Amino acid sequence: MSHHIVELKELRHIYPDGTVALDGVTFTITHGESVGIIGANGAGKSTLLLHLNGYLVPTSGEISIGHTPITKETLPEIRRTVGLVFQDPDDQLFMPTVFDDVAFGPFNLGLSGAAVEERVTSALAKVDAGHLREKPPYHLSGGEKKRVAIATVLSMEPDILVMDEPTNGLDPFARRQLMGLMKEFHHTKIFTSHDLDMVMELCDRVIVLGHGRVRADGAPAEIFSNQQLLTECRLEKPLSMQGCPVCGK
After folding, report:
1. Which superfamily, per CATH, for 5-90+158-241?
2. Which of 15, 54, 102, 150 can bridge 19 by disulfide, Cβ–Cβ 3.0-4.6 Å?
């Protein structure tokens, strides 16, 4: 598989209750891009990400990873390539210990015990969670769970990292640590976030969703300078682009 392209063509997703979550989403992401997908609550961001790993099946449209369409037959290959971190880490952690959770993916890749140990140790070190390896996930704080959930994906060594609200629930130190980690990940990064300062710092491209449609697609400075677009999509400029509330500068 070529890992260089994530391609969506006229992607639609309608939930059983009739809610149209995605309505003709089309875009292409090339290898190495860092892309932030933003929008108000209910814009379709999480639904979109769940399609990139095959967790949701589209109502219509096409999704390809490296020119390989996502189908039931290609799912194992797709999921080795695309690592998805859920918004709620409780959806990702289900084993008796942190070690078991982070080792689950590598074991299912057919790796040996020594190789799995190396993957787990490396992934936990990257999120500063090595001291948690023997703990049950349900004994962790929200921020610790988030870091471990990220480690479960990093242990798979994906070519494409997809993250839904990665800094949600993290304290300022852990947020900055995660941002540093994301900067070091030199393959493709796609994530949603309401943390627009993080988007501004980490992304070279921003896609704005509104009511399940792509409203804008461009450089962060261009997107965040368009006040009319932000207002229509119920967004605000990153704090770093807003004036001082005291002096107005």
Report:
1. P-loop containing nucleotide triphosphate hydrolases (3.40.50.300)
2. 15
